Amino acid sequence: MKKIIGLAAILFAMSSTTFAQENESREKVNVPSSVRSALHSKYPESHTYHITWEKEKGNYEANWGGKDGEANSVQFTPKGEFIEIVKAIPSSELPKSILTYVANHYKGAKLGDMGKVNDAKGKTSYEVEIHGKDVIFDENGNFVKEEK
Prior knowledge:
This protein is α+β, with helices and mostly antiparallel strands and about 150 residues long. The protein has 3 helices and 8 strands, in the order ααββββαββββ. The longest helix has 26 residues, at about 1-25.
């Protein structure tokens, strides 16, 4: 019995260390207070969620909400200026033309993450992850480009 309890304690300690390292690696992004402030000002509901931060192309990306913690993904410049938000959506909310385009140009491909994008200028577009790439469509569902 002592061996089982000892083994359980070791496994718990190892999993706690792994979890701490994963959180630590996410927290290595040193987010300026102006960016954190801009996030909570523009999206006050984000404050009630665990937020993970990433740097993308010199900007800061905050992710929160949903089962995977990425139902919302918002980007700010280092000065705290809003760039865009991507809200995760199901395929049923994509314009039909996107599904037609994907069926014709990516035969048999499974759709990954899908999102509705709203940028600082009020422009709407859509992102669909296919084969590890983001495929971008305009507000009407017309193909724009592929991004890695």
